[in-house]
Amino acid sequence: MINLDLSYKMHDMQQWLQDCIHLVASEALKRHVAIKLVDVQKMELSGDRNQLQQVMVNLLMNAIQVSDPQEVIEVSAEVAGVQRVQIVVSDAGKGIDESNKPKVFDPFFTTKSVGEGSGLGLSISLGIVQSHNGSLELKNNDKGGVDATITLPLGKIDNETK
Predict the structure, then answer these.
(1) Between helices 49-66 and 121-131, what is the axis angle to 10°?
(2) Please, is 135 exposed, middle or buried when counting C-beta atoms within 10 Å of its C-beta (0-12, 13-18, 19+)?
(3) How much is the pLDDT for 28?
(4) Of 125, 109, 106, 129, which is closest to residue 117 (Cα–Cα)?
(5) Correct CATH for 9-161 of 3.30.565.10, 3.60.150.10, 3.10.50.40, 1.10.287.1080
(6) 79-93: string of b/e by CB count within 10 Å (b at 16+)?
(7) Neighbours of 64 (CB within 10 A)
(8) C-beta of residue 40 within 8 angstroms of C-beta of residue 14
(9) pLDDT of 81-134, one tens digit each?
(10) What pLDDT, on the 0 to 100 scale, is given for residue 161?
(11) Core-most of 7, 80, 104, 143, by most CB within 10 Å?
(12) Inter-residue contact 58 to 24 (CB < 8 Å)
């Protein structure tokens, strides 16, 4: 596990996700890919906002890079079990080849062209999520792409959705 100097604070899930999407908006626009925030229940997340933002931006950039023009990346968050939240970044890209599944979190493993990635993003993201007592899972979805699911401890939940 990566040793991180974390600054745990409560932050609004919806606003945090919107801020993360905003950070990658120019890359999505350049590639003609849309990012849609799907009904996210009003809740607060406990954790280091900046470190978690690094994870979300990495997952969004990966999704953008594998998406064809006009595709839509969906970002959702829902309560999962007791005081946990699942945040899912879902793309319709190429999916993960079976032979690569065991290696996706290995440092320096990448399927990207030279100069497009170092192979550290998912490894670092996994370390950050684990340091927050969470998990990160990648699995192929029905759209042909990947669902990247982050599960984290949750702060407070409001029964309203926005």
Answers:
(1) 150
(2) middle
(3) 97
(4) 109
(5) 3.30.565.10
(6) eeeeeebbbbbbbbb
(7) 22
(8) yes
(9) 878 899 999 999 888 888 777 777 766 556 655 545 555 678 889 999 999 999
(10) 42
(11) 104
(12) no
* pLDDT digits 0-9 by tens, 20-67: 999 999 999 999 999 999 978 888 888 999 999 999 999 999 999 999
pLDDT value for 8: 83
DSSP E strands: which ranges in the chain?
9-12, 34-37, 41-47, 72-79, 84-90, 135-140, 146-161
- Composition of the chain by helix, strand, coil, percent to 5: 35, 30, 35
Fill in the amino acid letter for 155: G
For helices 13-30 and 49-66, what crossing angle results, to 10°? 30
Counts for the chain of helices (H) and strands (E), in that order? 3, 7
